[in-house]
From TrEMBL:
Keywords: Coiled coil, Endosome, RNA-binding. GO terms for molecular function: RNA binding. Residues 84-104, 608-627, 760-780 are annotated as: Disordered. Residues 10-72, 137-196, 558-592, 696-730 form a coiled coil. Its main location: other. InterPro entries: PPP1R21, PPP1R21_C, PPP1R21_N, PPP1R21_six_helix. Residues 95-104 have a biased composition (Low complexity). Signal peptide: none annotated. Residues 11-112 form the Protein phosphatase 1 regulatory subunit 21 N-terminal domain. It comes from Lynx pardinus. GO terms for cellular component: early endosome; membrane. This is Protein phosphatase 1 regulatory subunit 21.
Length: 780
């Protein structure tokens, strides 16, 4: 384990990191809340601005109305002032003058109303004209700004183009200079090449003369010495032994070994899948331990129980194919006879899949018909039934192509050599299809298992079985993916290696010719081995005499070493026997110690509470004493253990004194055992120290990473704090400005209400005074 200081420091850092992380989450949440609040306040501010603008418009209209009313009141006052002296002068006119004043008053009122309306219309036209002028001015200003910006952009583009053209001109001038230098060098090289061509033509002429002479000589030798040319006919050429390509054979054996490993993994996954499917049938939808399952599931379980007899031969067939590919053979499709065996085993397994497919589909239908099946589970079962059909179809397709590849080793006319590459490509496509189907099965079965686990009637046995089936399906998917990628990576090599065969021919014609060729190859290898048998080298006489003494001394030392080895082996065997003996003794002693501890515990329980303190304190020293008392009563010798710093010594309590030799042997054995124990403890301590060192390094790295993350988090906290303070300041300023605007609006509204109330009072007073005057005039 790590030192306590480092652990404490690491725990403190972990606590600080958790606190900082929690604070970071809180700060993030606060920032988000403040952003939301600021957005809401902005919306409120926009609404208030709109309401303020509406109020300002209303205020303008009210002020305009107040001005109209004020003008009208002034006109009324003027008319009243004019009408009062006339009333004094015309007191005697009577009713005719009052009627005339009333008509004049109505005419004045109509004129006043028309003037007021005309004034209002003029004000509106003036306001609209002013607004239109402002709008046109703003549009012209914006257009002027855009035109100025476009002019600046065009000027920048023109400057960039001029700069670019100047750079291109300089570059073209430099390229021109380089091309001139290059043309000069090329002219020099052309002159040198002309000289070389002349020399090569002379050499070619000489070689042609030499080869023509050799050709005539070789043709004469062939016509005289070779009675029969076996490479002329393909039937005879197929019997010739091709050149041995050891690299090709090692590559093919390596590929076969990888394929064997992948097939073994696939066979293991298939066995697990069929076995766990059988277990699932026994427990769902009806548990066989509670009730009898349906006859269909019984038959399905019986067939699944036989899966090993169909799946295991696939591994055996692939193993035989791997063993048939050796360094001494020639590996092509015509010589791989064991591929036919593997194809037959694959055919038997596909027959097994066809046999169990109807039962599997009916079993899934039976699950769908049960009362526990939900709609989602029914949909998954339908998808699984389709996937099982696809899986059987993919295996049938794969078996078809493997059977075609096995034909050249048994039937020469079964598959043309031109179709080898297409068959291998289709095998790769079938393997990729198998991988895709297994991925769909894994996906749908995972969903099905998840739904079944959520059912209230799901048992632990069903959950465990579903997990096992899922693991086997995942293993099948991984195995299928590995095989598909492996075959895709090596399919080009397979296609290229098909041309490996006899020289100057398209390949082996029939399996019989290939077998004869292999026999001839073995005979040729044996003949070459016999020819290359090295001669025995003789040692000179003087050197043999000189080495004789060394040989004798080495034989003596060899005999001595052999004796030492024999003695050490005997000692090791004796030590192992003693070790087993002492292990048994230790087990017996452990059993005795447990019994003695149990007896002491029972005795302590039987004693009273008051007397329990004394025996508990005397327990470490009183165990052997109790044993001696019991030994004295029963007259049996018991071993006494004495504990010290060097270990535990065991001696008997007999009255006889052991002799010196037995005591020395006892001490020697004890020290040897103690040394062995200390060495084992030392090795354990070394391993622990190495482990602790690695752990400390890992902890130091984690500590450095934690410090870096802490620094980053502190920086983020500082930035977040600054953002929060900035947002708070903005919020306070917006609140203050909003409050100030509201207070100003409220004051303005109050003042408007006061002015309106005053104007209404004045109008009421004017109306009252006008009514009073009219009444006085009528009374007069």
């Amino acid at each position: 384990m790590a030192p306590p200081e480092l652990q404490g420091k690491y725990q403190k850092l972990a606590q600080e990191y958790s606190k900082l992380r929690a604070q970071n989450q809180v700060l993030k949440k606060g920032v988000v809340d403040e952003q939301a609040n600021s957005a809401a306040l902005k919306e409120q501010l926009k609404m208030k601005d709109q309401s303020l603008r509406k109020l300002q418009q209303e205020m303008d209209s009210l002020t305009f109305r107040n001005l109209q009313l004020a003008k009208r009141v002034e006109l009324l006052q003027d008319e009243l002032a004019v009408s009062e002296p006339r009333g004094k002068k015309n007191k005697k006119s009577g009713e005719s003058s009052s009627q005339l004043s009333q008509e004049q008053k109505s005419v004045f009122d109509e004129d006043l109303q028309k003037k007021i309306e005309e004034n209002e219309r003029l004000h509106i036209q003036f306001f609209e004209a002013d607004e239109q002028h402002k709008h046109v001015e703003a549009e012209l200003r914006s257009r002027l700004a855009t035109l100025e910006m476009e002019a600046a952009q065009h000027q920048a583009v023109v400057d960039g183009l001029t700069r670019k053209y100047m750079e291109t001109i300089e570059k073209l001038q430099n390229d021109k200079a380089k091309l001139e230098v290059k043309s000069q060098t090329l002219e020099k090289e052309a002159k040198e090449c002309r000289l070389r061509t002349e020399e090569c033509q002379l050499q070619l002429k000489n070689l042609h003369e030499d080869l023509s002479g050799r050709l005539e000589e070789s043709l004469s030798i062939i016509s005289e010495k070779v009675p029969f040319n076996d490479t002329k006919y393909s039937q005879y050429n197929a019997l010739n032994v091709p050149l041995h390509n050891r690299r090709h054979q090692l590559k093919m054996r390596d590929i076969a070994g990888q394929a064997l490993a992948f097939v073994q993994d696939l066979v293991t996954a298939l066995l697990n899948f069929h076995t766990y499917t059988e277990q699932r049938i026994q427990i769902f939808p009806i548990d066989s331990a509670i009730d009898t399952i349906s006859p269909l599931n019984q038959k399905f379980s019986q067939y699944l129980h036989e899966n090993a007899s169909y799946v295991r031969p696939l591994e055996e067939g692939m193993l035989h194919l791997f063993e048939s590919i050796t360094e001494d053979t020639v590996t092509v499709l015509e010589t791989t006879v064991k591929l036919k065996t593997f194809s037959e085993h694959l055919t038997s397994y596909i027959c097994f899949l066809r046999k169990i497919l109807p039962y599997q589909l009916k079993s899934l239908e039976e699950e769908c018909e049960s009362s526990l099946c939900t709609s989602a589970l029914r949909a998954r079962n339908l998808e699984l039934s389709q996937d099982m059909r696809k899986m059987t179809a993919v295996f049938e397709k794969l078996q078809t192509y493997v059977g075609l590849l096995a034909l050249p080793s048994t039937e020469p006319d079964g598959l043309l050599r031109t179709n080898y590459s297409s068959v291998l490509t289709n095998v790769g496509a079938a393997l990729h299809g198998f991988h895709d189907v297994m991925k769909d099965i894994s996906k749908h079965y995972n969903q099905k298992a998840t739904i079944e686990h959520e059912l209230p009637t799901a048992t632990q046995k069903l959950i465990t079985t579903n997990d096992c089936i899922l693991s086997s399906v995942v293993a099948l998917t991984n195995g299928a993916g590995k095989i598909a990628s492996f075959f895709s990576n090596n399919v080009d090599y397979f296609i290229a290696s098909l041309s490996y065969g006899p020289k100057a021919a398209s390949g082996f014609i029939s399996p019989l010719s290939a077998e004869c060729m292999l026999q001839y190859k073995k005979k040729a290898a044996a003949y070459m081995k016999a020819l290359r048998k090295p001669l025995l080298e003789s040692v000179p006489y003087e050197e043999a005499l000189a080495n004789r003494r060394v040989l004798l001394s080495s034989t003596e030392s060899r005999e001595g070493l052999a004796q030492q080895v024999q003695q050490s082996l005997e000692k090791i065997s004796k030590l192992e026997q003693e070790k087993e003996h002492w292990m048994l003794e230790a087990q017996l002693a452990k059993i005795k110690l447990e019994k003695e501890n149990q007896r002491i515990a029972d005795k302590l329980k039987s004693t009273s509470i008051g007397q329990g303190v004394g025996p508990a304190q005397e327990n470490p020293t009183g165990v052997n004493a109790g044993g001696q008392e019991e030994a004295s009563t029963k007259a049996v010798l018991e071993p006494i253990h004495s504990t010290s710093l060097i270990g535990i010594l065991t001696r008997t309590s007999d009255n006889e004194v052991p002799d010196v030799e037995s005591r020395e042997d006892l001490i020697k054995n004890h020290y040897m055992a103690r040394i062995v124990e200390l060495t084992s403890q030392l090795q354990l301590a070394d391993s622990k120290s190495v482990h602790f060192y690695a752990e400390c390094r890992a902890l130091s790295k984690r500590l450095a990473l934690a410090e870096k993350s802490k620094e980053a988090l502190t920086e983020e906290m500082k930035v977040a704090g600054q953002n929060i303070s900035r947002l708070q300041d903005e919020l306070t300023t917006t609140k203050r400005s909003y409050e100030d605007q509201l207070s100003m609006m409220s004051d303005h509204l109050c003042s408007m209400n006061e002015t309106l109330s005053k104007q209404r009072e004045e109008i009421d007073t004017l109306k009252m005074s006008s009514k009073g005057n009219s009444k006085k005039n009528k009374s007069r």
